[in-house]
Amino acid sequence: MTRVGLMVTCINDALFPDTGKAVVTLLRRLGVDVEFPAAQTCCGQPMVNTGYFAEAVPLVRNHLEAFAGCDAIIAPSGSCAGSVRHQHGLVAERSGDPGLVRAVEGAPPVYELTEYLVDVLGVTDVGAYFPHRVTYHPTCHSLRMLGVGDRPTRLLRAVRGLTLLDLPGAAECCGFGGTFAMKNSETSIAMGNDKARHVRGTGAEVLVAGDNSCLMHVGGLLSRQRSGVRVMHLAEILAQTEPVIEGPGRAADERSVGTAEVAR
């Protein structure tokens, strides 16, 4: 049986655990044997992005050890999936360790969640139900580094009850960019405000994306503007199913979502 490892990412582990839980719920519903290697840590992207390649070497080694034995790795983040696929090789080459280079080259393939669903499992209808108006923001790394294309929107369009609204300027960066948001805060906020304005203009109830880092940035601005727009990771929407009603007005499936949960 295929053994799939969940690379939950630092931000989800620390701040958005429901996203990781949603991925497991979704994949198991689709018949995937998914595990969570507890030894995983940061993928090393913050170090690489700021030029500290040597400091990223222990993290690359840990990643290889934590996911050894997996046939594939799934990440609910275009940013971190892109880091493993494109930066780990650079870190290994700069380390001067041929053994590390070989280990990275032979590591299990890493998929962003929508890539795995559409390309590997071959599904776009995952049996989800989410009766709300939604707009989708394609995050920079998923769009440009991984090239996920329309996979996320194909999945969203297949969700029963969901109305997908076009987001003006969708391909424009939201302004987060990891350390960019701290080093260039004024520019970051200006870019985020542009994105928030476009989101509000759609009339959507929910802004969805495949990276919680970007949702955290834009969601914070939307909250301060009292927009009433909620942000949700794509996995959390895809994990929702239609309520199973047992008796008068009683929903048996507590994982199902309704208007009350979106308004929370």
UniProtKB/TrEMBL annotation:
Domain named Cysteine-rich: residues: 6-84, 134-218
Organism superkingdom: Bacteria
Coiled coil spans: none
InterPro entries: Cys_rich_dom
Protein name: (Fe-S)-binding protein
Organism: Pseudonocardia nematodicida
Organism lineage string: Bacteria, Bacillati, Actinomycetota, Actinomycetes, Pseudonocardiales
